[in-house]
Design a protein that fits this description.
Largest sheet: 5 strands, mixed
Distance between the termini: 58 Å
């Protein structure tokens, strides 16, 4: 086996190995993961918040048994493939063993480890950004039109995974116009490739059209509830944290793309990152939306540093360059991952607060990081709903109605009774079964509305009670109530139809 082959296998092996130590057994799956997994039961060409690709992966996970292992395997796989693409980029730039090792180390010990522990579209999004930049690198290097078509396919898959990849084009197109590569716009193959990409994404475009473009409603909600709390300066500052151990490599790539003569033909990349970051800042995007930009620049920086650190005394700096990302990652490992108990985090809250990890999307600081709080209380919820369901008469005619997609998805994933909870929130609004004549209602309601809910719904049922609640104080759903309403006095389906129409305001 060649040395390079053994090295890349080793890095990919390490990538998967690390993911066994990044999540404590005290945590459940994360809120968003439940929604994505449930999409496998409702395959379509689009959803209210995401394109369809994640649902296809969820279907594969379901075929493999829907276990925790497979849920975490795929984001780790996408992270490993990102390392591999950076490796191939370095090879394309004629990087040596040191450059390859440095680049793989920088990507391995970065924010990707954090993102790759969650089953969300973000991991594949970063892979698609990196792969697209790689196809551009190959095209610039070879001027072989096949790379335009490969790039179109990569972009289309990225689009079907997360619309965020549109920002890549927003940054790249003006960058191409500023360089000699503007001649690409006179190549017919570019437009044939673009047509190929459009054909691939067209089923999702048609789905959006047929559903009155719910993506715009989602973006409006996102802007009003989350992006309004985004500080543009914080966005820029946080970019430094994602690859903090690789800043020397990244800044070396920016310098090299501007002044290193062998990289002159790749200068489009420096303009591209400027335009893309400007677009993200203008639209007040979340900081992690931009992570996909950076892996390709690690390739450029690694190759450049390998050139200036070869020969003489400088070669002794090579091991230091490789060790730095690891050393700077160690303190991050202690705070950025759910590998510590909530009690430990609260006791050492200053370590988390100074890095802004306790700030949630509401702009306020809380006891533990939001992602961690979103991994607690779900098994407790499902277990209590299971118990309540089994105690009901005519339980097969029971509707389980939740406040949000996290509650509904967690019940559907963890319940032992194979229940199907729904919600007026997110995609669950399209998944109601109105053919069942419901006589009972299990209602999961957020803590601050528990008393109000009991008074509001009780008159429509013969019996009602608050049957349980989430008691984990560190869970984001702490205090969420579980009601049992028994013996409906009305046809629940009529009220459901009214509420579904009322909540489908994306129409």
């Amino acid at each position: 086996m060649k040395k390079k082959t053994a090295l890349i296998i080793g890095f990919i092996g390490l990538k998967f190995l690390f993911h066994f130590f990044l999540i404590s057994n005290e945590y459940d799956l994360q809120r968003d993961e439940f929604l994505h997994l449930d999409q496998a039961n409702h395959l379509a060409w689009g959803y209210l918040s995401v394109p369809p690709f994640t649902s296809w992966t969820s279907y594969i996970i379901q075929l493999f048994g829907n276990s925790f292992f497979w849920v975490k395997f795929f984001p780790a796989l996408y992270g490993a493939l990102t390392i591999f693409i950076v490796w191939k980029s370095i090879e394309e730039l004629n990087g040596n063993i040191f450059a390859l090792t440095l680049g793989a180390t920088c990507v391995l010990f970065s924010a990707l480890l954090r993102l790759n522990i969650l089953y969300q579209p973000n991991s594949l999004d970063i892979l698609c950004w990196t792969a697209f930049y790689f196809t551009l690198l190959k095209y610039i290097h070879t001027e072989n039109f096949k790379w335009l078509y490969i790039g179109a396919v990569v972009f289309a898959l990225g689009f079907l995974n997360k619309y965020n990849i549109i920002f890549l084009l927003i940054g790249l197109l003006p960058a191409l116009l500023l360089t000699t590569h503007r001649k690409i716009f006179f190549k017919p193959n570019l437009y044939f490739a673009a047509l190929l990409g459009f054909v691939i994404i067209s089923p999702n475009i048609m789905w959006q059209y047929n559903n009155n473009f719910p993506i715009f409603h989602h973006l409006k909600q996102l802007t009003e509830t989350q992006l309004v709390n985004v500080d543009r300066l914080d966005f820029l500052k946080n970019q430094l944290l994602f690859f903090i151990g690789s800043l020397v490599v990244l800044f070396s790539s920016f310098y090299a793309l501007l002044f290193y003569i062998p990289f002159a033909k790749y200068r489009v990349y420096i303009y591209s990152i400027l335009f893309t970051l400007t677009a993200f800042v203008y639209f007040k995007a979340k900081d992690y939306y931009a992570i996909g930009i950076y892996p390709i620049y690690i390739a450029f920086g690694s190759v450049y540093l390998s050139k200036i650190l070869e020969g003489g005394w400088k070669k002794y700096l090579q091991p230091i360059a490789i060790i730095i990302p690891l050393l700077l990652f160690i303190p991050i490992y202690n705070v950025a991952f759910p590998n510590k108990s909530p009690e430990y985090i609260v006791k050492h809250s200053e370590n988390y607060k100074k890095l802004g990890l306790l700030r949630w999307e509401d702009g306020k600081d809380h006891l533990i990081p939001q992602d961690f709080a979103d991994m607690l209380g779900w098994k407790e919820l499902a277990s209590k709903v299971d118990s309540i369901y089994l105690s009901l008469p005519n339980k097969q005619n029971t509707l389980i109605l939740c406040d949000n997609y996290g509650q509904a998805g967690a019940i559907n994933y963890y319940t032992k009774q194979k229940l199907q909870a729904v919600s007026f929130n997110a995609d669950y609004i399209n998944w109601f079964d109105l053919s069942n004549k419901y006589v009972n209602l299990i209602r999961v309601k957020k803590a601050e509305e528990v008393k109000e809910e009991l008074q509001k719904i009780s008159p429509y049922f013969k019996n009602s009670l608050l049957a349980g609640s989430i008691t984990n104080p560190y869970a984001r759903e702490y205090g969420t109530g579980i009601f049992a309403f028994i013996g409906a006095k009305i046809d629940i389906r009529e009220r459901l139809g009214e509420e579904i129409d009322k909540n489908k305001n994306y129409h």
